């Protein structure tokens, strides 16, 4: 029997030839024959080990500077922005840098006065939503760090470093908001909510289980699943919370907080763009992942995320004046369709093609500078301008 013809189907496709050569080499290294590796019980174990994506080598003079694949590929490790496999990533890199901001620049004294005048229900809604955001960004810092180690593309690794840094800034902003408006003791309580609140726990665990799976068993399949989870976290799971804070801003309340939320939304939009590009490139690099079962996984997982986000809105926002929950539920579907579009997939929901809540969007710098409230007198940032020209704000 020709051994190559008998190779399991995952290795048998022509594009898997390189992996086959890699496996032969690896077999020699562990002292196992190819036949044994492919067909014996011990071999199955060795094979599984080998399918785990290898970490990028730090110093590899044998490999080309331009990556051959985003994960599991070859790349020397040096970064030359003028010689990268996905040239549009250079533009994203510059946009991310231009959007730099830090929480301490935003004055919070008016927010502190207004928070003290809110009723206890409104205060609780505010705090539980901050608690949600703090968990999402904490998880995200860890996930981006995990992904960064596996990229075999120096430009993607570099962008992950910046995105990871931005997630840390987001986390700092939540601590900064809380330290401005509540006592130390209350801050600590807010950072405990997520461990006990069943609704909050369910939606966070939904994502963390998928991220943990990628951390425990890093391979192209778990990476695919983790990218779907990423698009959900950054592209869907923030949105009823954004609605809550922008709704306060529409009443000129908690404007310092809303300014930070606006910066965070702008960052998250760009992160979505990045991970959607990575998602599409993963399918190009590993066409065997482009299966009906994986498509079904993406739709099923996103649909569950839409349910969880809608439940969250009904759970935390039902007493909030100015937010129509049916409208918000349509908006969540609308935003899910946008994410699917970004991932190169067909929309999942009909009848929600129009944005019914256009006020859920980052404030532009022009708007920030044009108004006269304290909020808009916040120190203007000199790094860059939010506008139509950077191309990533309205994803
Ligand atoms: Zn973030
Ligand atoms: Zn993010």
From TrEMBL:
It catalyses: a 2'-deoxyribonucleoside 5'-diphosphate + [thioredoxin]-disulfide + H2O = a ribonucleoside 5'-diphosphate + [thioredoxin]-dithiol. The keyword Cytoplasm does not apply. Keywords: Deoxyribonucleotide synthesis, Iron, Metal-binding, Oxidoreductase. It comes from the Bacteria. One of its GO terms (molecular function) is ribonucleoside-diphosphate reductase activity, thioredoxin disulfide as acceptor. InterPro entries: Ferritin-like_SF (IPR009078), RNR-like (IPR012348), RNR_small (IPR033909), RNR_small_fam (IPR000358). Its cofactor is Fe cation. Transmembrane segments: none annotated. Its EC number is 1.17.4.1. It is an enzyme of class 1 (oxidoreductase). Binds 2 iron ions per subunit. Tetramer of two alpha and two beta subunits. Provides the precursors necessary for DNA synthesis. Catalyzes the biosynthesis of deoxyribonucleotides from the corresponding ribonucleotides. Belongs to the ribonucleoside diphosphate reductase small chain family. PANTHER family: RIBONUCLEOSIDE-DIPHOSPHATE REDUCTASE SMALL CHAIN, RIBONUCLEOSIDE-DIPHOSPHATE REDUCTASE SUBUNIT M2. This is Ribonucleoside-diphosphate reductase subunit beta. The lineage of its organism: Bacteria, Bacillati, Bacillota, Bacilli, Bacillales.
């Amino acid at each position: 029997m020709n051994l190559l013809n008998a190779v399991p189907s995952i290795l048998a496709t022509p594009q898997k030839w390189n992996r086959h050569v890699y496996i032969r080499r690896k077999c020699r290294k562990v002292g196992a024959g190819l036949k044994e590796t492919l067909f014996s019980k011990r071999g199955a174990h060795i094979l599984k080990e080998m399918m785990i994506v290898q970490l990028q080598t730090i110093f590899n003079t044998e490999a080309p500077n331009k990556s051959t694949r985003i994960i599991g590929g070859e790349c020397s490790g040096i970064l030359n922005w003028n010689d990268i496999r996905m040239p549009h990533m250079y533009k994203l890199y510059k946009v991310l840098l231009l959007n730099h901001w830090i929480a301490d620049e935003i004055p919070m004294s008016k927010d502190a006065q207004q928070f003290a005048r809110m009723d206890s229900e409104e205060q609780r809604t505010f705090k539980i939503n901050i608690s949600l955001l703090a968990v999402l960004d904490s998880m995200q810092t860890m996930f981006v760090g995990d992904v960064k180690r596996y990229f075999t593309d120096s430009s993607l690794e570099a962008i992950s470093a910046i995105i990871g840094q931005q997630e840390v800034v987001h986390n700092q902003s939540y601590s900064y908001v809380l330290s401005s408006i509540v006592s130390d003791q209350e801050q600590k309580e807010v950072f405990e909510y997520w461990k006990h609140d069943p609704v909050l726990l369910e939606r966070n665990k939904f994502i963390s289980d998928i991220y943990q799976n990628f951390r425990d068993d890093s391979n192209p399949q778990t990476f695919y699943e983790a990218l779907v989870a990423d698009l959900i976290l950054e592209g869907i799971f923030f949105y009823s919370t954004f609605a809550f804070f922008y709704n306060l801003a529409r009443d000129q309340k908690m404007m310092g907080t809303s300014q930070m939320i606006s910066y965070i939304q702008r960052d998250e939009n760009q992160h979505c763009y990045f991970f959607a590009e990575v998602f599409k490139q993963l399918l190009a690099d590993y066409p065997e992942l482009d299966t009906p079962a994986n498509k079904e996984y993406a739709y099923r997982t996103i649909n569950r995320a839409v349910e969880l986000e809608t439940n969250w809105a009904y759970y935390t926002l039902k007493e909030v004046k100015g937010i129509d929950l049916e409208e918000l539920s349509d908006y969540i579907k609308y935003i899910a369709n946008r994410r699917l579009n970004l991932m190169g997939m067909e929309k999942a929901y009909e009848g929600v093609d129009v944005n019914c809540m256009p006020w859920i969007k980052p404030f532009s710098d022009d708007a920030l500078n044009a108004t006269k409230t304290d909020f808009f007198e916040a120190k203007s940032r000199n790094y860059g301008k939010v506008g139509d020209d950077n191309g990533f704000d309205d994803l």
